[in-house]
Each structure stands twice: as structure tokens, then as C-alpha cells.
Amino acid sequence: MTAAPGLLLPSPLQDLGGGVLLKRDDLIHPLLPGNKWRKLHRNLAAAEAAGASALLTFGGAYSNHLRAVAAAGRMRGLRTIGIVRGEEHAPLNDSLAFCAAQGMELSYLDRGTYRRKDDPEVLAPLLDRFGPAFVVPEGGANADGVRGCVPIAAEITEPYDLLVCPVGTGATLAGLARGTGAEVAGVCVLKGAEYLDERVAALQREAFGESGRNWRIDHRFHHGGFARTTPELAAFTDAFAAGHGWRPEGVYVAKALYAVLRGGLGAGGRTVVLVTG
Ligand SMILES: *Cc1c(COP(=O)(O)O)cnc(C)c1O
User: Fold this and answer.
1) Is the pLDDT of residue 1 over 70?
2) Does ligand 1 have an atom closer than 6 angstroms to the CB of 252?
3) What is the reported pTM?
4) Which terminus of the chain, N or C, has less C-beta within 10 A?
5) Would strands 13-17 and 20-24 be described as parallel, antiparallel, or unpaired?
6) Could you identify the atom of ligand 1 that is nearest to the CA of residue 139?
């Protein structure tokens, strides 16, 4: 992203020993960490190529994606509009306060309407109200978002047998897998989200015209669901932080690390875990 100085690319590799390496995408940029930068930069270029002066996007009240869009819009001189799932709460939580401080205009949709946010019937009134804007889907999960994740694997200079990443929308997994001939396992952080298997295949078809067979989603490590935790996961995260001097992000990254370091995912081979944020 040309107008964001100080991007750390390629992101560093960290050897944990025992055949496990970390690809530290969380270090790419302090305000645009990890897969959020990967998924946004082509969308930003597309918005600018289309002559857009505003970005409109969607997310939950603690969405890392909303934060990243707010920060990227500010860096690129684009207006940003964030449509938040659920009711407005005063005062804003830290995440939304950050968005507002970056200049993002926030608006709220009740959960039922939010579910239909990609319908023209819901989208058109939003665009009428906020003015013309380039729409980035929730999580940056569109073809450009997926394509932005393709180069990650080629940056890995050590041999590996398995690549592991956390899965929210699956856009990162879809692009990551496209960029390697090796096996890729996504660790799903949502409970009961088996529909994501088809969603990732659809994202690959949208981005590349075909879907590959070198990836799978592991649904065993959600620890109760999105943003939920278990005593095992909390203890693991504390021990990891104490042992390595940094605390992995809790909603996504800790679950992927747990799957590999405690759950036996990739055991016996060389595994790279993508630290997405
Ligand atoms: C948003 C996010 C994800 C989810 O990535 P998807 O491409 O939506 O699957 C994973 N890790 C972190 C740290 C995130 O912020």
C-alpha cells in the first residue's frame, strides 16, 4: 500500500522450535495488522481506481476489520462509513472509539437487518443516506481480499509440510491456499460453522475461477464459539505469553496456536502458523 509508510513486508518468520514456525503478519503495521492489510490493499486500489472518495463497510462492535478500514481510510484520505451490527451503546467501546477517532462515521443496524446487509434493499438506502461509496464487504471477504492473501506463502523461505491459519470469513484461507502447493488447514473460530467449507470454495471460485483441493477447515478448536474461551485456552494463552514474551491475539490467533501446540494439528511435520493479527 503506497501511502502507508512503514509496512514490514515480507513479515518475519519466527522459529518456535519443535518443527513449528510462525509467520508474523501481526507485525506488518501497528494500525493495519496482518490479514486486514492483506485483504484491504487491493480493495483500496480498486476504490481509488473507481474514483471513489468514500468507503462503506460492515462489522461487529469489536471488529478488527472496521478498525483497519478506519485507519486505512484516514491514511489514504478517504471518508469511511462503518455500519455496525446491533444497537448503539454509549460510551463507545475502545474498538469503536478508535474507529471514530480515525474519522469513521458510525451507523447501526439491528441484527435482523444486518444479516441482509448484502441485499440491495438494505444497501441502497445506506448509500442514499451516506452518499456514493465503494462498498467493502464484512471482513474484506471478496475476490480482491482473497487475492491479497495469495503472496503470503511465497514469502515463507523455510520448508514446511502444513500451513495453518485461523478462519473467520475464510477469505485468508482461500487466498493463502491458492499461493502454495502444500496442505493448508484453517482453524475455525466459530461454532457450528460447517457452511464455511462451501464458502471458502466459493471465494476461491470468485477470485480464481476454480477452487483447489489443498485446504481443509478443522472445526474442533472453536472453544465454545466466536470470542468465547475455555479454561484450557486461557491457560494455554497465559503460558504462551509467559514463555515467548508476547500475548497472541485471543479471538483468532490463540485458537490456531492451540490447535498446533496442544491439539496435535500438524504433529510430526514442519508446520507454519500464520499469525493473522
Ligand atoms: C479478521 C481476522 C481473522 C479472520 O480472517 P478471515 O479472512 O475473515 O478468515 C483472523 N485473524 C485475525 C487476527 C483477524 O483480525
Assistant:
1) no
2) yes
3) 0.96
4) N
5) antiparallel
6) 8
